[in-house]
Amino acid sequence: METIVLDIGETLVRDDRHWASWADWLGVPPHTLGALVGAAVAQGREATDALRILRPDMDVEEAYRARAAAGRGEHLDESDLYQDVRPALAELRAAGIRVVVAGNGTVRAGELLRALDLPADLVVTSGEWGVRKPEPEFFARVTEVAGAAPEATLYVGDHPADDLFPAAAAGLRTAHLRRGPYGHWWAEHPDVVETADFRIDALTELVGLVASASSASAASGVAPEAEGETGVRRGVLRSVRQVY
């Protein structure tokens, strides 16, 4: 593997502040909104459906703009990062791996992430690209910026329908991260198990994973691109939102 591309929410960044700020804006206890988010996740729905349960007529994008205009927009600092983010990204770069951060997020989120000066070669959001996951166009852009062939690029994320399945469909190798509501709830689903090339519990596992994969390829004499037929589990690419 030459490039590792990482999702943002619940892969690098904890969503605690995000949902707490929405709860405050809507005037409900954080645990109420948290429980509704959990229910949406368990049903394979968008997490933002929790907001619409509380305010059925709410336009989420319009509400986001209203929050920003009121001085209660997005905020992100070091405390929002998972503790393994900096060590893992730094080790990957030291090992000669190109590190890209690319996930769903606003233009503002991209600015805030870059201000944290993460050990990454590129940080970009869907808002800046004008296309969101799980759209194929998003992963086409990922392939463009990876600087490596799809079979030499690993996409890491927690969300099966937004990260794992469309990345695999685009020909990328995939790592499913057991983190956050989606990562934990769907971790053992047969489609996730079958589709993910790797399943991890922490980003710090990536360095050893890359080394092991490289050693295995060298020992077998099989080029990474040839492994897709026998060693990579692609699975039936189905959206949890549509099926479950």
Q: How many β-strands, per DSSP? A: 6
N-to-C order of helices and strands = EHHHHHEHEHHEHEHHEHH
Radius of gyration: 18 Å
Strand order of the largest sheet: 3-2-1-4-5-6
Our estimate of the beta-strand percent is: 5-15%
Helix content range of the residues, please? 40-55%
The biggest beta sheet reads: 6 strands, parallel
Mean pLDDT: 89
Structure class: alpha/beta
Tell me the distance between the termini: 33 Å
Low-confidence stretches: 222-244
Shape: globular
How are the SSEs placed, and which strands pair?
Layout: E1 3-6, H1 16-26, H2 30-42, H3 49-54, H4 60-69, H5 85-94, E2 98-103, H6 107-115, E3 122-125, H7 126-129, H8 136-146, E4 153-157, H9 160-169, E5 173-177, H10 180-185, H11 190-195, E6 198-200, H12 205-220, H13 240-243
Descriptors:
244 residues, alpha/beta, six-stranded parallel beta sheet, 13 helices, 6 strands, 48% helix, disordered C terminus
Give an overview in words.
The protein is an alpha/beta fold. The protein is built from 13 helices and six strands. It has a six-stranded parallel beta sheet, with helices on both faces. Helix 9 (160-169) links the parallel strand 4 and strand 5. Helix 1 (16-26) packs across helix 2. The longest helix has 16 residues, at 205-220. The radius of gyration is 18 Å and the shape is globular. It starts with a strand and ends with a helix. 35% of the residues are buried. The model is unreliable at 222-244 (pLDDT under 50).
